[in-house]
Amino acid sequence: MVRVEFLGPIQKEALEIEASSLQDVAKALKSDAEVADWLDSCAVAVNDTMVADLNTPLKSGDKVSLLPPVCGG
Amino acid sequence: MVELYDGGLDIPEITARWYQEEAKSNYGAYIPFIGTIREEDGISGLSFDIYEPILNSWFEAWVKKAEAKGAVVKMAHSRGDVFLHESSYVAAIFSRKRRVALEMIDEFVEDFKASAPIWKYDLKEGQRLYAADRSTAINGAGILGDKK
User: Is A72 on the interface with B (CB under 8 A)?
Assistant: First the structure.
């Protein structure tokens, strides 16, 4: 199982899903009405490292974080 | 490590401490940038969420980048609520000569705005409202969506 966490303003509890790559995570989240609208604007980290490739492989225990648009300062 | 504090920053304490920390380091320039909450659109303040693991790795990359130019970077930020005319952000560059620090503080603050995993909310009429219109998608965002 992979843990998917939603950061900042996305008001959603973390999910545990079966996924062998970010492709699988994308597929699962697109069918989730609470989060689907955020996907086009969110950056993604795997185990706290930013990733840019949807083919990034995942293994059980990995943490996927969704980072919506930011504004510090 | 980034210094994080609950609520508004004690800017005189932080900037004086940083000054003392580098007082004998032979830097000719110390350039701080301080961000203060302005009165605007009827807000009573701002509020911040921070994701510390990625904030710290982003900052450590900047520490190395600064080192490569013989400079030092320091930063402090608030989490939670910060009210009008308090400060939520201070960053500073120390360098041997002014030009490196002047250019780096500009580049650092712009990259901070675009990349640091911090989310801002307006405090208005008892609500905490995500500042979506002032927020920037992080470079590379959207891989899970349909646009890419």
Answer: yes
- Element counts in chain A: helices (H) and strands (E): 2, 5
pTM of the model: 0.95
Pair of tokens at residue B118 = 């911090």
Domains in chain B: how many in total?
1
Inside any domain, residue B98 = yes
What's the complex ipTM? 0.95
Contact of A67 with chain B, judged by CB distance below 8 Å, is answered with yes
- Residue A14 pLDDT: 97
* Amino acid, single-letter form, for residue B27: Y
Domain layout of chain A by residue ranges: 2-67
Query: Is B142 inside any structural domain?
Result: no
Alpha-carbon distance of B37 to A11, in angstroms, equals: 25
Q: What residue type is B83 in one-letter code?
A: F
The answer as to whether B144 is a domain residue is no
Spelled out in words, what is the top-level CATH class assigned to the domain A2-67?
Answer: alpha beta
B45 and B91 in contact (C-beta within 8 Å)? no
More confidently predicted of A11 and B59: B59
Domain that residue B34 falls in: 3-133
In the stretch 9-28 of chain A, residues with CB closer than 8 A to chain B read 9, 22, 25-26
| Inter-chain contacts counted by CB atoms under 8 A, chains A and B | 118
Q: What is the pLDDT of residues B16-75, one digit of tens each?
A: 999 999 999 999 999 999 999 999 999 999 999 999 999 999 999 999 999 999 999 999
Between chains, do A7 and B112 touch, taking CB under 8 Å as contact? no
CA distance A2 to chain B (A): 15
